[in-house]
Amino acid sequence: MTIRLLLADDQDMIRTAFRMILGTQPDIEVVAEAADGETAVEQARRLRPDVCLLDIRMPKLDGLEATRLLAGPAVRDPLNVLIVTTFDLDEYVYRALRNGACGFLLKDTSPNLLVEAVRAAAAGTTLISPAVTVRLLAHLAPRRDGVPEAPEAPPTEPLTERELAVVRLVAHGHTNDEIAGQLYVTLSTVKTHLANVQRKLAARNRVEIAAWAWRNDVCS
Asked: What is the DSSP letter of 2?
């Protein structure tokens, strides 16, 4: 299957670089480009690409708001949005994920990781820059200062021990292949466990599963 990709960045040079990296992959086709957020949203709604790769700082409409319009909780048929930005700011990461982004990369990431992230987004999984992941998850860990937090709704069904093992590895940033290797199961089995976990937690994606794990202190 060919992954249909929309590129949105206000810098011609960046779009050209991404097109050269991604457009030469045998399974990825760049079907549209946009230099501002409004155009990106219009093209994404019209063309329904498999993945929308958005910059954050764009004229007319920034990438975070464009993400909300394309993948937010109120969107009935959300698209897969991958944020690629220069700005490694926590505020951007949190808002992008809350608005429905399924991945967050920095522009200095390697070409191989960029390609992998696009493929992961198309498959409904998530890839976040490792440096961002570590900092993000540290913030999501339970507070140690004694200040009570708002209670969280429990899962609709208890997670099995095997599902919890998968969740712990997801929370530590492992890919499905790595989880399969560590647990000595097939890739298909890992995907089945993740689908069950996602249903039980009402999580929209892998990031929300990892966030749940860190908030509920089940990562160790």
From this structure: P
Which phi and psi (to 5°) does residue 46 adopt?
-80, -40
Strands 28-34 and 81-85: unpaired
User: Reading across the β-sheet that carries 81-85, which strands appear in turn?
Assistant: 28-34, 3-8, 51-54, 81-85, 103-106, 127-128
In angstroms, the CA 12 to CA 8 distance is: 10
Rounded CA-CA distance 170/178 in Å is: 10
Residue 163's alpha-carbon distances to 19, 76, 194, in angstroms, are 38, 28, 7
Residues 76-91 pLDDT 10s: 889 999 988 887 666 7
pTM, two decimal places = 0.67
Give the 3-state secondary structure of residue 94.
Answer: helix
